[in-house]
């Protein structure tokens, strides 16, 4: 084991953890003020739900010895056998327990991202059921397919450095399905859905970007040159994603908004996630620029044209961004940069890797969409998914949690007691 690698991965782990509170600020600023705490609560409480699942059996099923190329086993139930010695099958240079902790942070933020699609109308009991079942029946198998030794997509040679399929497409597609099943928010009169606190949106976006360096560079599993590549490609893609969004926004409305460029940066960070350790900085520039444009089209045109209420643009940013990034990995991957990678289309590899990446995209879409729909139907048999009209009008902060993000002195006693 390497002390430098342990220190580096420890830092990357806490960086990825920081992304979830960052997401809470990002989402919290985007909703109307009477729903702030409800969406932030969903991001925060995911930490507790997923940690419990991951400790008991989630990690074991995701990364344990393979069964039929589909799932792991229960050999590490309750973290039995996951200790301070390394697991050479995944990371021989750091303690097995540290690898577990790093993967746990990914498992936490993925369903938290998904909840943005149903902001302002998903009831808290339904959220609990959805996140619990989704983590078990969607996220865990998908992790094993893509990253687990023996997983069928990994065996086919799919490249996903830090979660284009596992995190981004999975959360984006699930968010879209959930938004469609739960239905649209109740909007009446002058009740226009606009971000109520832009400084919090910017704070959240900044924390997400900061954490993304650990998210992607940590995929190298050590303090090495590959981590440096992932850090640089992440920064370049995010910056040019802002530009890509700004160009289209200016062409359409002759203004460039800080909300827009922040969204463009996040869309590009999503897109570079599967490619970060496989492509050159020049390729990252192109991937990020295109991702910013795709994000803008998904949010400004696709959602409006199709009429679905993806409240915080989970599919437009994460679903479409992850799709483009996974495909772009097959186009731009350079084997000279990463011996564990492959040759992409533009580097002499032909269409083989593009085909594998497209297969991974298609399989993820189909599995995630079908399973999410089924989980929602099961949860709806136990508790209503959608808040009532009265609950939405009073705000989910009060109706679901008995709190207010901005209480005044006259109502504080009523709200809290």
Assembly category: single chain
SS element count, helices: 15
Rg from alpha-carbon coordinates: 21 Å
CATH topology: Ammonium transporter fold
Q: What is the ordering of alpha helices and beta strands?
A: HHHHHHHHHHHHHHH
Major pleated sheet = none
Summarize the amount of helix as a percent range.
55-70%
Number of strand elements: 0
Distance, first to last CA: 53 Å
Annotated CATH architecture: Orthogonal Bundle
CATH class: Mainly Alpha
Described by the principal axes of the CA atoms, the overall outline is globular
Mean pLDDT: 95
Number of domain units:
1
Protein traits:
mainly alpha, single chain, Ammonium transporter fold, disordered C terminus, 417 residues, 15 helices
